[in-house]
Amino acid sequence: MTERAYYQNPWNFLGLPEDIANAARARGWVLPIPYEATTSYGAGTREGPAAILAASRQVELYDTEFECEPAMEYGICTLPPIDPVHRSPEAMVQSIEEVVANILLDKPGPEVLGILGGEHSISAGVARGAARALKARPLMTVHVDAHADMRAEYEGSPYSHACAARRIVEVSPIFQVGIRNISAEEAAFLKGRKDVRTVFGNEANDPKAPYLKDLADFVKDKNVYLTIDLDGLDPSIMPAVGTPEPGGISWERMLEIVRTVCANAAAVPVFDVVELAPVPGLRAPDFLAAKLVYKMFSYIFNSRQL
Ligand SMILES: [Mn+2]
Fold this sequence. Notes:
Elements: H1 18-21, E1 28-33, H2 48-56, H3 70-74, E2 76-78, H4 89-105, E3 112-117, H5 122-133, E4 139-144, H6 164-168, E5 174-179, H7 184-190, E6 196-200, H8 201-204, H9 211-219, E7 223-229, H10 251-264, E8 267-274, H11 284-301
Helix pairs in contact: 2-11, 4-5, 9-10, 10-11
The structure holds manganese (II) ion (MN).
């Protein structure tokens, strides 16, 4: 067992009181990873975790969907951020793999680890760490994004943010939703693959959303890693991302996707929310990200009530 340092009130996620937010008591843990190195367009994701934590303190604990203050029941502990490794993107991915595997194997550890990014390249390390920690139990990945992130390598590195899903598919089948920007190389890679299902932007926004049934089947009774790149959302509600794309999914559709996963999976031991690049003076995107993270914890812990 590791004695873990953690953030205390009021600096933790949601500004929870000490008796709810300590590592021994909390069933959910938050891990900030303020890493940014391979961003190719708009910068700023290193500020993402701090902006989510700051905004989270304005999120009302009471949730109208559950008619209670869910976080006061399950508890959330906020770990200090892990130090970025700038030697190379590969070294950072390795470091994240170690940290994530160690946390998931820790006893007592969290039932759910929620990671705040940081750029999407961190997810390769999260997937590897989760796959290693859960090795006897297969892992399935659900991925919301505007971009397929299926490049073999990008700008000289196989560990770029543009390759995140390609690295994940090496350890886990993947179901992607909201994709609306891919390269010819990625389109060729995706053709005929049995371990990847890609729901493109127009289909993702279909009001009837028949793919949600397929998503439910994909995660049924499995351990799931949920990775959310915030640019999967429509940029009119989520402009604070490095690579915005028109035509993304709505807030309500995002919640539907998360609910579908949580109501059907055996467990969701790890998730991440990545690519928030805060825009000074624009608070709505930071608040959306914080509320989404809270909703994700609540859906996971209350899945039987969905
Ligand atoms: Mn993206």
